[in-house]
From TrEMBL:
SUPFAM superfamilies: Dimeric alpha+beta barrel. Residues 1-109 form the YCII-related domain. Gene3D superfamilies: Dimeric alpha+beta barrel. Pfam families: YCII. It comes from the Bacteria. InterPro entries: Dimeric_a/b-barrel, YCII. Belongs to the YciI family. This is YCII-related domain-containing protein.
């Protein structure tokens, strides 16, 4: 099963509140070694984002993210796991799980039945 990990900041987290654990390079190497890594990278900050909407046939492009949120998606990883429990285990070892938030979602391929 394919899962998307949204790596997000957490404005409520205190810096250094959860010391220890893996570095990002160690986490990436660990996930790759288990054969679970499909893709992943960091993202540019929200001020570099553009939001695109089409209304009345016109594309409307605005600067930054559409939502007014204090947290923002800092990166992503796509992983292959046997089940949700394995995906959660991998996400819990990510360094940003200590200082940010990791949202784990199973991919839902187009044309796949509702599950």
């Amino acid at each position: 099963m394919e899962f998307m990990l949204f790596i997000a900041t957490d404005p409520e987290a205190r810096p250094g509140a959860e010391p220890g654990g893996l570095t990002i390079d160690e986490w990436v190497a660990e996930v790759a070694a288990r054969g679970a890594s499909i893709a992943g990278d960091r993202l540019r900050p929200p001020e570099d984002a553009r939001t695109v909407r089409v209304r009345g046939g016109d594309a409307i492009v605005t600067d930054g993210p559409f939502t007014e949120s204090k947290e923002w998606i800092a990166g992503y990883d796509v992983i292959e796991c046997a089940d949700l429990d394995e995906a959660i285990g991998i996400a819990s070892r990510h360094p940003m799980a200590r200082a940010g938030r990791i949202e784990v979602r199973r991919a839902w391929p187009l044309g796949a039945a509702d599950e």
